[in-house]
Each structure stands twice: as structure tokens, then as C-alpha cells.
TrEMBL record:
List of catalytic residues: H80 (proton acceptor)
PROSITE patterns registered for this protein in UniProt: PEROXIDASE_4 (PS50873)
Name of protein: peroxidase
EC number: 1.11.1.7
Leader sequence segment: 1-32
Length: 171
């Protein structure tokens, strides 16, 4: 016979487990490719730079091992570059004064901009000058979020297995 407190603990455990399960379900659904607008393509660089996404992701993995704070900084660059008139890579252009010097862009990390410049260099060595700076910025932001979510997912998996273990102790 179970006591009311152990029953409440079991219900709490089941509730938390269902939240975690729902989160994993939503994450897996979000990874499916959404519908495209005419003129856009998931495989735009498949012939001219087939390893583009791998290059960007591998470079970011190296960067995040020593500077994981750059993930949100790359996302900030994406928003500042793409927010008003679409992505144009203008934050990456040098100028006197440049777009980076605009007071609205003061919070942009120069090291994160350097990371995008480094990625651009690697991409140009591999593929030539066929990939736009705006696309590199978008891929860097997307992969920064992806890499952070993967880290969080592995922590959530640990938490879920811990809760399953605790649940099995009540059986």
C-alpha cells in the first residue's frame, strides 16, 4: 500500500516525465524541414559548395570548446543583420564608419564577428567565393542554436533517465 506522500511524489515524477517527453517530441518535430517560399532551396550550395554546412558546424564546434559564450553572440549578429531589410551581411563589411559603428549595434561582439570572418575564410578556401556572407551568418546562427540545443538535450536525457530510475525505486 502506498502512502499519500509517495503517491504525490509518483504523480510529480510522472508529470515531470511527461513534460520532458513532450519537449523531446516538439524538438524532433521542429527538426523536420518546413515548407519553402518560391525561390528558396535547401540544396542551393549542393553543387558549388557541398560541404558548406559541415564546414560551418565543425568550425563552430571548435570555437565553442574554448568560447561557448559565442553562441548567443552569433545569434545577436544574425538578428542585427537580418531584422529590418533582410539578411545582407552588411555587419561584416569594414567601413569608416561602418554598420558596426552604429549605436544600435554596440552590443555586437567583435570576437563573434571574427568567428564569422574565420568561417568565411575556411569556406572560401574550400569552395571559392560562391557563398555569401549573409548565408554564412545565417548558418552560423542556426548551427550555434543547434549545438546548444544538442548539449541541452543530452542534459535532459540524463535528467529523464534519472527520473526513470527514481520512478523504478517506487515500484
Amino acid at each position: 500500500m502506498t502512502t499519500p506522500s509517495s503517491r504525490r511524489s509518483l504523480y510529480s515524477l510522472l508529470f515531470i516525465s511527461s513534460i520532458l517527453f513532450t519537449s523531446f517530441s516538439l524538438i524532433s518535430q521542429a527538426q523536420a524541414k518546413p515548407l519553402l517560399v518560391n525561390g528558396l532551396s535547401y540544396s542551393f550550395y549542393s553543387k558549388t559548395c557541398p560541404n558548406l554546412e559541415t564546414i560551418v558546424r565543425n568550425h563552430l564546434k571548435k570555437v565553442f570548446t574554448r568560447a561557448n559564450w559565442q553562441a548567443p553572440a552569433l545569434l545577436v549578429i544574425f538578428f542585427h543583420d537580418c531584422f529590418v531589410q533582410g539578411c545582407d551581411g552588411s555587419l561584416l563589411l569594414d567601413g569608416n564608419p561602418g554598420e558596426r559603428d552604429n549605436p544600435l549595434n554596440r552590443g555586437i561582439s567583435h570576437k563573434a564577428v571574427q568567428t564569422i570572418d574565420d568561417i568565411r575564410e575556411v569556406v572560401q578556401k574550400e569552395c571559392g567565393r560562391v557563398v555569401s556572407c549573409a548565408d554564412i551568418t545565417v548558418l552560423a546562427a542556426r548551427d550555434a542554436v543547434f549545438l546548444v540545443i544538442n548539449l541541452s538535450s543530452s542534459l535532459l536525457l540524463f535528467s529523464l533517465s534519472f527520473y526513470i530510475y527514481i520512478y523504478s525505486c517506487f515500484l
